[in-house]
Every structure is written in C-alpha cells, then in structure tokens.
Amino acid sequence: AVDLIDELSQMEGFNYTFSIRTDGKNGNLNNVTGEWDGMIGEIIDGSAHLAIGDLTINSQRESAVDFTTPFMTLGISIVFQKPQKADPSFFSFADPLAFDVWKMLAITYFGVSIIMFILGRICPGEWQNPYPCIEEP
C-alpha cells in the first residue's frame, strides 16, 4: 500500500504523511450518535483525505465514503470522502468551455459580422437589384 500511495503522489504531484491509528479502529457507525469512528470518521470529518488499510467494504461504509476497486485480494483499499453534488447553475451549459474560449468565440462572431456587413456595402455585386420593377429592394 505504501508503494501505491508513493506512485500516486509522484503521478499526481502531491505530498502525503502517514498517520497510524493507535486505537486500531477502521471505522464503525455509532447508531446512537450517528458518528463514525476510526479511519472512516477521520475521512468524514475532514482530518484525513484518504485512508489505506485492510478495510472491508460493507453497505454502511459504502454509503459514507467511496471505495476504489480493490487492488489486492487481501481487502486493502483506498477510501475518500464522497463528493457532494452541487445544483446546476443557470450558466452550467457553458462549463465545458473556458471563459476565454467563450470570449474569443463572441469576438470572432461580431468581427465576422462586421466584416460581412462592410464587404456587402463595398462589393458592387451586392448593388444589383434582382427585381428591377421595384426601385427600393
């Protein structure tokens, strides 16, 4: 597991420190208080970003945190806090492109429109009236 987190940190460019739990608890839900203890509790309250250990995947833990696909058959896995889904904003349709792309698209649209207007005024082919009986087209 140490080799895995070391390789991940090199690939993604982050630093890490290990914190070994002295109580040996992986994470159990207290049904009275609704709070988690152990590694799962640290992830939920934000004092840890992820946990590596011999965690078994059960329905209670699965509802609280995300598990990776087990990379060994020994039950060792990495868990992290489930991301909270945010409501889409009014302009969420614009999220696939960066603001600079939208800005350049608008500038290009208006620039081409102005150039087409000017060329239409200058070009003599645009002056011909296809309906000669009507003086004002």
TrEMBL record:
Domain of life: Eukaryota
Gene Ontology cellular-component annotations: membrane
Domain Ionotropic glutamate receptor C-terminal per the UniProt entry, residue ranges: 1-132
Transmembrane segments annotated in the record for this chain: 101-119
Pfam family, one: Lig_chan-Glu_bd
Bilayer topology annotation: Multi-pass membrane protein
Any coiled-coil regions, as ranges: none
Alphabetized UniProt keyword annotations: Glycoprotein, Ion channel, Ion transport, Ligand-gated ion channel, Membrane, Receptor, Transmembrane, Transmembrane helix, Transport
Compartments where found: Membrane
Domain Ionotropic glutamate receptor L-glutamate and glycine-binding: 1-45
InterPro entries: Glu/Gly-bd, Ionotropic_Glu_rcpt, Iontro_rcpt_C
Gene Ontology terms, MF aspect: ligand-gated monoatomic ion channel activity
Alphabetized SUPFAM superfamilies for the sequence: Periplasmic binding protein-like II (SSF53850)
Cross-referenced PANTHER family: IONOTROPIC GLUTAMATE RECEPTOR (PTHR18966)
Family of the protein in this entry: Belongs to the glutamate-gated ion channel (TC 1.A.10.1) family.
Protein name, as recorded: IR1
Organism, as annotated: Hycleus phaleratus
